[in-house]
């Protein structure tokens, strides 16, 4: 049912893709087929990515605090996490996602545009807020609703965009719970205790645990 407050997903996707792209700070270039080149330092794309990380793993960062679900400890929004997730999306989504109206957007810019499109259809007022990204301006519950809309959009099944949508929270969780917050890429070594280890209660690398050393009950072989 379509109301003044909530546009239908089909009408929204079909008619305001260009608006959503503008919201995410994507620069359009119309040479032959319309294409969009992602802006690596776009504040809107970065805010969207951080908004996703805060949704998946809330922490004490501004994005988590604004969404109304936060903790007193670090979460998904940690140093290096947004850059890593953007790079992951750039590699995972090399083909256009938003191809309606002949507009091609790829990588993290495509993910940000897509998520922000559905953020605005879920809550039109999200265009205004402390962040440049509509998605980042949403509450945690409304962010969940955005992913519900993405999961149930009838135009997506059977298209590459369906798999990209499923990968958004999954890849965000991989980054949030990884060692990226304390990993030096040049040295290929940890510089401290990763936030992901704290989130999971992981004690760190070990050569083994006492309970797994030796033989249980003195049994050292099994007879066939």
TrEMBL record:
Name listed for the protein in its UniProt record = Secreted protein
Higher taxonomy: Bacteria, Bacillati, Actinomycetota, Actinomycetes, Mycobacteriales
